[in-house]
Amino acid sequence: MKTKERYVFLECTECRERNYTTHKRLKAAYKLEKKKFCNMCRKHTSHREKKL
Ligand SMILES: [Zn+2]
Questions:
Q1: Residue 5 C-alpha to ligand 1 middle, in angstroms?
Q2: Does residue 42 have a pLDDT over 80?
Q3: What is the pLDDT of residues 2-36, one digit of tens each?
Q4: For an engineered disulfide with 4, which of 13, 26, 34, 51 has Cβ 3.0 to 4.6 Å away?
Q5: CATH number of the domain to which 39 belongs
Q6: How close is the Cα of 35 to the center of ligand 1, in Å?
């Protein structure tokens, strides 16, 4: 059986730059939020998922 996954952007919450793509399971209820380095802000910021 195949695991259904979809791709999402991780968007910087400060400058709205979409710096990363990742994937998660289709039925996952949670929202992804990760501390990532933002090239525009030049620091670590929270990145939130956005649909591709
Ligand atoms: Zn940023």
A1: 26
A2: yes
A3: 778 888 999 999 999 999 999 888 887 888 899 99
A4: 26
A5: 2.20.28.120
A6: 11
Residues 17 and 38 sit within 8 Å (Cβ to Cβ): yes
Q: Which domain holds residue 24?
A: 5-50
* Interval between CA 45 and ligand 1 midpoint (Å): 7
Q: How far is the CA of 44 from the centre of ligand 1 (A)?
A: 8
Q: Distance from the CA of 51 to the center of ligand 1, in angstroms?
A: 18
Tell me the CA–centroid distance for residue 18 and ligand 1, in Å.
Answer: 8
User: What residues contact residue 30 under an 8 Å CB cut-off, 6+ apart?
Assistant: none
Number of domains, the chain: 1
